[in-house]
Amino acid sequence: MRRARVAYQGAIHNAVMEEGRLRLADGRLVREEEVVWLPPFTPGTAFALGLNYADHAGELAFEPPKEPLVFLKGPNTWVGHRGQTVKPRDVTFMHYECELAVVIGRGGKRIARERAYDHIAGYTVANDYAFRDYLENFYRPNLRVKNRDASTPIGPCLVDRDDIPDAMNLNLRTYVNGELRQEGCTRDMIFDIPFLVSHISQWLTLRPGDVILTGTPRGATPVEVGDEVVTEIEGVGRLVNFVAADG
Amino acid sequence: MTQAWLRRHGCVWNEEVEAFPDTMDLVWQGRRIQASELPLTAPVTGTVYGVALNDPESLARLDRAFNRPPYNRPPEAPVLYIKPANAVIGPGAAIPVPDGVEWLSAAPALGAVLGRTAARVDEREALSYVLGYTVVMDVSIPRQDWYRPAVAEQARDGFCPIGPWIVERAAVAHPNCLRVEVYVDGKRCLSYSTASAVRTLPRLLCDVTSFMTLYPGDVLLAGVPADAPLVRAGQRVCAVIEGVGALENPLVAEPQAEALYSGPVAQPQAFDLRPDGKWSP
Predict the structure, then answer these.
(1) What fold, for A41-245?
(2) What is the ipTM of this complex?
(3) pLDDT per residue as tens digits for the range B169-190
(4) Does domain B40-260 fall into CATH 3.90.850.10?
(5) Phi and psi at residue B55, in whole multiples of 5°?
(6) Residues of A in contact with B271 (CB under 8 A)
(7) Shortest Cα–Cα distance, A145 to chain B (Å)
(8) pLDDT tens profile A84-119
(9) DSSP A33
(10) Measured between CA atoms, how close is A213 to chain B, in angstroms?
(11) DSSP A134
């Protein structure tokens, strides 16, 4: 099932996709264009991976890491499908990052790799924008690069785990104004999903709603104000975002 | 006497009390009692943002390293990190010492609790967004490296005791000039003044909210000292901030601490859950 959260006629609704339309929890069936899309769930703690695809690490002139490079994101950063992300005036290099988002459904600590999928509620698409002009070498990637307001589109839907038989073999693609700019496959992750769930839960207790953004493949190119950026993951969704001007 | 907000264990809202931060007692249902007589949990549920390298001593020590890889130059923006919800515990709750780790760093910090949504605030008006102040113990596994995010070191369960209450903003006339002390098993190990901060709290609020909205209930730490005391299982650590309060927590080896761990404070539910807490497809 594909679950969404939308604003419609002045209220917020949980909904599920039904043949291209949205069935609200109260039974109403509405068209996609009639709603404002919100993040499909309320994210708890967000863990994001840097350099988790060897080809992207190479592109940024880094050796692939021996340990996962994990950073955290705050709740200010999310924005739903078809939302806007601001490109600040002084930024010359803002780029998208198409990422498979793994959503925790059952909490736990010290989760074994073999049991990791039991703790996953489902998947969605995230676009973990970076604003490279603000990169500094302290807690890199620093929050000013990775945790700006509304700079992480997520959605459109949360897709139930069991609807994705092999999350480790999904094609990712990013289109800017219709042009294919980024392409990869989740099978090329350096640290796979069971490893990441297990690894993070050795440190701390994962809880329902926590989310892991599993990194992005190569193909990061600049985007400009006015661009339509589509991050797409096979079977999971097609997430649209618009780059907007500051102020 | 000052107005303060605290949260009793098991409650999902804060209650207003009259508090006496110097003696750590309060008026509860007409009776004056010690704060420690109430079972309290952390009085905040928002996101906690910490600020590293906000004191001249830390910067001076790194002065030479700043111009070499991997840093290459000194920090320009505030060096921020997140203490996630799993880390937050209340006064008196056990700080778990992870297996294989002997010493933890216990860095006391003044926590500014947001009362209003703060986006792109002006430095001169920044404090008007603050509801009040609380005591935060920023616990971490010691690491002298600021290049990569330190999630494994900073974000463990129970690594962010907060409390015992939030004192109203008006009770703290000069947040940029407060004495902060740490006691380990009753012995004073550290004393510093928030006046030593490189960026004052209003400046931090201005810089942080220039790109990141802070919401009511979020906590911004005003910085941590260069030489935080090292503590280990079996000890009790107490942070005292002048006019704000005292926050004491025991350190317990992780297996035992988990038995005592009462779980994090209430958070909004991510999605519909079954009563057993599992995701309900």
Answers:
(1) Fumarylacetoacetate hydrolase; domain 2 (3.90.850)
(2) 0.95
(3) 999 999 999 999 999 999 999 9
(4) yes
(5) -130, 150
(6) 3, 14, 41-42, 121, 158, 208-209
(7) 9
(8) 999 999 999 999 999 999 999 999 999 999 999 999
(9) G
(10) 15
(11) G
